[in-house]
Amino acid sequence: xxxxxxxxxxxxxxxxxxxxxxxxxxxxxxxxxxxxxxxxxxxxxxxxxxxxxxxxxxxxxxxxxxxxxxxxxxxxxxxxxxxxxxxxxxxxxxxxxxxxxxxxxxxxxxxxxxxxxxxxxxxxxxxxxxxxxxxxxxxxxxxxxxxxxxxxxxxxxxxxxxxxxxxxxxxxxxxxxxxxxxxxxxxxx
Length: 189
Description:
The chain is α+β, with helices and mostly antiparallel strands. It has helices spanning 2-19, 121-132, 141-150, 152-168; strands spanning 31-37, 47-51, 54-59, 63-69, 72-79, 83-90, 95-103, 110-115.
């Protein structure tokens, strides 16, 4: 019986490693953030994503995007009917997962950004399957420039709301640096 207790964690670990094959490794000098939207709720509604005052993407439906950024402080936010903020001091070489969870809204779907804990094996298994079945949504510099122009007013209001939250002492959820993964480099033959 004891042999089986040791085999189970090894089996789960190898399962995660096999499923993580579609995952990208963070560069040694950058942090990598997966913004995931695995739920079909409000699938027609676009969620716009920002890193402070910079537009980093927009998509609807069941998709995800990768965002490679410099280590250090970041405030990520998403906008739909509402705005959701999450902040943190990201570390180089680490991979973070932020889930954009659709919320019931008054007119259209709202959004809430929630950090995913890689220790939650059931949730991670579901998200790794999601990642492995899809290619990430990517954006050219021209698309991001066009989005920045289209969302100029949204960006200004979002930064004003963030400033107001800080002034009022509102709590902004914080990214936990213990909830990351380091994706091993692919084995060479």
